[in-house]
Specification:
With 353 residues, the protein is α/β, with parallel strands linked by helices. The protein has ten helices and 15 strands.
Length: 353
Amino acid sequence: MFKLGKRFNRRSFFRAFFGLVLTYIFPWKVKSLTSALPPHHTGDGFRNTDPNFKQADGLDVFNWLISRGTRRSFSKETAEIPSTTFNNILVENVNTNSVTWIGHSTTLVRCEKKLFLTDPVWSETAGPYNLVGAKRYTSETISIEQLPDIDIILISHNHYDHLDLNSVLSFAKNKKTHFFIPLGLKEWFADYGIQNLHEMDWWQEETFGSFKIVCTPAQHFSGRSPFDRNNTLWSSWAVIGKEKRFYFGGDSAYFSGFKQIGEKYGPFQLSLIPIGAYLPRNIMGPVHVDPKEAVQAFLDVNSQMMLPIHWGTFRMADEPIDQPPKDFLAEVEKRGLNWNAVQPFKIGETKIW
């Protein structure tokens, strides 16, 4: 687990704190669209294009952040998130397609002998300088040093709980590791000397060895400070091999794009779809699926197996940290779906797909 490497004074702390708050409050406006640009592009950034999308009210977000901070300062959750020992023998078997939940949106996928890692985050705090932001609730059971060499890292967007500087720098030491990133993030990675970058736009496809890797849409937003709101793209990813294919949903609200992705690139044998950080709905609804919507997204992308992600690791919303899988499985049972195909993993658990 990473720790802060240098000392910060009180002024640095409050600057980081209020910067993080402002990042989520203000939907910074972007330039008007022009006919020459794709619909999700603007003059100086990106936007969501689903006709049902409506940005959360900034004042509502501010009031929620303040009240949430007050409530959390007087209460602590005691729920235990199930975890298990990492099965490195199974993961290192190149002839077995496997998937491991490391925590939050970080997963390890073995697909046709190659190793994929999604949104690697090992830091204790998901926030500026690893100083303020969402604190890790559940410790990871797998260290970076335990992992085999990673072939491809998929990044969904630049929020701190999905793009962690210390983690990507650790993986970038392996010069054979390639990073697939949404449009606009190449400069950030290059500033830290990270190479092997594949920057892609929605629906763009790239051949990598025997795989076709597709940058697919999501309904979300981006930003790491009050001044870069939606300057870089957010995405999901479809990975298509000769026999196997999987979908990484990243971070997204429910939108029509799930069905489009399923129609264009499905069926998938595996999908990694978020189920957590969904309350209150007036704040989270525009950018995060709830568990019921996650079930529908699973059906929309036409997947045979699902690993529920984006829960149990960081305290990011109002629902109890162990509530997402309960609501998710209730919806699975209500719809009469195959329980075994969507059963939530323990942190550190590996399954064959």
